[in-house]
Amino acid sequence: MSREHLSRAEFLGLIGGATIGVTFLPGAQELLGEVAPELDVDDADAATLPYISVARGRSLNGSHVAKLTRTAIDNLGGMGRFVHKGDWVVVKPNIYGPRTPAQACTTNPTVVATVVREALKAGARKVTVMDNPCGGGALESYKKSGIHSAVKKAGGRIVVMSGSRFKTYRIPKGSSIKTWRVYRDIMECDVLIDVPIAKNHGGAVMTGACKGLIGCCENMGGLHNKNRGLSVNIPDLVRLIRPDLTVVDGTRARVRYGPGGTDLGSVRKRYTVLASRDPVAADAYTAKYLLGISPAAVPHLKNAAKLKLGRIDLARLSIKKVTV
């Protein structure tokens, strides 16, 4: 696990004060965004496991979706590769607003619940689930999406983000934004698992693991408009909010009128769940194979790859695909 020697809280304390000597601390260089994810020396399994794990099926039945999710995680080394006994895990789905799973605007609740169960099984002391919906009230959106009840049944805790828990953080080497207000739980947890849904986006071309990090922040609208916009602001967020694991819900994909469209005619059943340690690579696969978009045509992914924040060169990555 990339932060086993340096917790999020410890790291943030370091960058909040003097930074002399930080690069000599175990794990600090990666956290500063100076090392590409595949070079994480703390993960001895990286060389023998796939860079992206893909599970494809034939049904949207709840038990089948749960199996797809477990398979994608297991083929990446299992949840125990990321979650250790006593960890506080935060799961961050995409909960756009009060939408049903069939509308493919919010993460499939079964995918979220399965991630929660797997984290608890791996030894997490608590698993909290949260997002900052932009299309409606938080609690209403949580309930309408089915995530509220699914998470509770799985043993997780639902958190409605409170304004008092947003905090300003410095973005190391930020190219467009130098600071931003992020929910403290996102930054202070031991393990962050990003669980987006595959969908297109009118302003960002697509939304997924990287674009979804905006839901960790206050003033989400500002990230769309400040300086040069999403194409550079999203990579800066990836520098700051680095998920330990990304699990993409590709059971359904919204290919038009995203991120909040309600029409079912723009939804495609893909029967897929994929997992990666690299949110940029996860989005690249999602773009190409679930949305039919070239990763290089997504400005924020192209910029993130140039900054060595992740990979979009899928042909050069180890990708394990299995049919469930």
Question: Could you please describe the fold and organization of this structure?
Answer:
- It contains eleven helices and twelve strands.
- The protein is an alpha/beta fold and 324 residues long.
- Strands 1, 2, 3, 4, 7, 8, 9, 10, 11 and 12 form a ten-stranded mixed sheet that branches. Strands 5-6 form a two-stranded antiparallel sheet.
- Helix 4 (109-121) packs parallel to helix 6 (147-154) and helix 9 crosses helix 11.
- Mean pLDDT is 87; it is low at 1-42.
Beta-strand proportion:
15-25%
The CATH architecture designation is 3-Layer(aba) Sandwich
Q: Report how far the terminal alpha carbons are from each other.
A: 27 Å
Per the principal axes of the C-alpha atoms, what is the gross shape? globular
CATH topology title: Rossmann fold
Residue-averaged pLDDT, rounded? 87
CATH superfamily: LarA, N-terminal domain
Helix content: 25-40%
Please state the CA-atom Rg, rounded to the nearest Å: 18 Å
What letter string, H or E per element, gives the SSE order? HHEHEHEHHEEEHEEEHHEEHHE
- Main sheet properties: 10 strands, mixed
Oligomer: single chain
DSSP strand tally: 12
Counted up, domains total 1
Class by helix and strand content?
A: alpha/beta
Uncertain stretches: 1-42
What is the CATH C level class, in words? Alpha Beta
The helix count comes to 11
